[in-house]
Fold this protein.
Amino acid sequence: MLIIFRIKFLLIALISLLIFLYIPNLALQEVSAQFLSSPQIKPLDANLNNSSIYSFVQSGFNYSQQLYGEARIPVKKINLRLNMTPLTSLDNTTQGEFTIYLSRKPSEYAFHGQLAHEIFHLLNAQLLDCYAEGLATVFSEKMLTRNNLNWSGWEQYFQAGSEPFYGLTYSMMKEVSDIAGSANMNSLLNFAVYNDPSQRWMHIDIDGWLSSMSDSVKIEVEKIINKHITPVKQVVESNNQMYSCFKTS
C-alpha cells in the first residue's frame, strides 16, 4: 500500500512539473507567434531576386510589428521594384498587396537602410506624416544595427545636412523613442487618423497619443517634440508639403 501511495505521489509531482514547464513556454510561443507572418515576396527586378533580401524583408516586417504593433491592413504580398523615388504603396487593400519601390541597388551602401525604412511603412502605407517618417528612419537604424550593418554612413549623411526632412524627423523621433518607452511607441500608429473625408491619406493625432501617456512621460515627450517641431515644419512647408506635421496643442 505504501509503495502504491509513493508511486501516485511521484506521478502527481511529475505531472505538476510538466504543467509548470509547459504552460509558460506555450504562453511565450503564443506571444511570439502573434507577430509572425509570412507574406509572399515578389521581386519585379532581377537585381532584387535574392534570398538574403527576402529574409531581410521578412524578418524586418515581423520586427516592425513587434516594436510598433500589427500592420493596419494585413500584408499578404510584397512586391519589390527599383524606381527613381523610394516609397511604399498600397496596391490592393482586399488582397493585402503592397509594393516597395527602391532607388538604390543591393550593391550600394544605402540599399538596406532605404529598404528598412520602407518596410516600416508596410504597417500603414497611407501615413504621410512627419512623426511616422522620423520613426521609419529610427526603425531603419534598429534594423541595420540588428543585422550588423553599418549605420554610421547615414549619421554622417544627416549631419552634413543632406535631406534635412529625414535628418530632422529622425533626430526628433529618436529622442522621443528614448523617453516615451517601448509601450508608448508600440501604440503610436494606433493614433493614425484620416486627413479628410476622401480617406486616402492619414496623419498621427499627436495630441491623442500624448494624452494616452502618464502625465510625467507626456510632459517630457512634449518638451522634445516642441524642441524639434519648428525646424521640421519649416522644412515640410518649403520642400515636403505632401506631409502632415501637426504641433502639439
In short: The chain is about 55% helix and 10% strand. The two ends are 77 Å apart (CA to CA). Confidence is low (pLDDT under 50) at residues 1-33.
